[in-house]
Amino acid sequence: MTETVDALRARHLADLAAAATPEAVEAVRVEALGRAGTVTALLRSLGGLDAEERRRVAPRVQALREELAAAIEAKTSALAAAALAARLAAERVDMSLPVVPEPQGSIHPIARVMDELAEIFADLGFAVAEGPEIEDDWHNFTALNIPPEHPARAMHDTFYLEGEPSGRVLRTHTSPVQIRTMTGGRPPIRIIAPGRVYRSDSDATHTPMFHQVEGLVIDRDIHLGHLKWTLETFLKAFFGVQEVVLRLRPSFFPFTEPSVEVDVGCSWEGGRLGIGGSASWLEILGAGMVHPKVLANCGLDPAEWQGFAFGCGIDRLAMLKYGMTDLRAFFDADLRWLRHHGFRALDVPTLSGGMAP
Ligand code: DAH
User: What is this structure's pTM?
Assistant: First the structure.
C-alpha cells in the first residue's frame, strides 16, 4: 500500500508538471481525484483494511489527496496567469504609435521652400499675400509702369488668353500682387507673395510654369538699407549661415527706381556650393525702391509713402539649397525623384527647429 501511495504521487505529480493546458490539468485531476480516480479508489479501499493498517495508511492517502488537490489548483492558476500574460502581450496597444500608417506622400521641395519663406518672413512681420494666376493686363503690366508697347512686355514671353478683349494673361511674375495689395489696403504694408508664374520658355533652366516670391514693404522713410538688411536676414535664415555678403548691382526694372540686381557671396569648394564669403557670386533676385509712378497708380502719394520690392525665383532657391541641377525635374512628377528629394509630411520648417538642410 505504501508503495502504491508513493508511486501514485510520483506519477500524478509528473503528469501535472507536464500538463501545459487547463485541459491536461483537468485530465490529471479526473484521473487522480475524480469519482473513478486512483486516489479516490484508494480512499474507498481503506474501509476494507483492518484497524491498525487503516490508522497507518489513511493519513498518507489523505495527505496525498490534499497535496494533489493543492498542486492541481496551483498549476491551474499558474496556467491562467500565463495565459493572461500572453494575451496581454499579444493584444498590447502602443499608444505612442500613429493611428494611421506612415503617410506615403512627401512635400515637394518647392512647397517646402514656400513654407520656409513664410516662416522666415512671418518672423519679420510679413503677411503672405496672394493674387490670381490669370491676371489682367493692367495689374500684370500697366500699373507696374510697363505701358503697352513697352519693350519689357516682349521680354516676358507672355501667354495671352485667346479671345479676351480685355487682354487677360497668365501672370508673368508675382509683381501684380504688389498692385493688388496696395490698391486693396492702406500702408504700412509688409507682404510676401509666393506663387506660380508663366512664361513661354523651356530649357534646362526655364520651364513654362515656375515659381516666384515677391516682397513688398511700404511705409514712411523706407530706404535701400531696409531692403539690404531684410534680404541679408532672410538669406542667413534660409541657408542656415551666420553671415552673408550681398552685392547690389545697378539694374533696370520699370517698377522700381533705383533698381538693383542682388548677388550673394558664395564659394564652390570641392564642387559644393557654400553660401558666405565673397569668393564667387550668385545672382539671386531683382529688387529696388518702388517707382513713384507705381505708388501713384495705386492711389498712394509718393511724397508720403516709400517702399522697396523684390522678386525672386523660388525654384532656383530650392535648387541652390537642396542641390538639384535640372529645373525640369521639379515638374516631371517622377516618384523616385520625389522620394529622394521630398520632405516628410510632418516635417514642418520652423525657425526654432532650424531651416538648414
Ligand atoms: N518681376 C521681376 C521679374 O519677374 C522681378 C522683380 C524685380 C520683382 C525687381 C521686383 C523687383 O519686385 O523690385 O523679372
Answer: 0.71
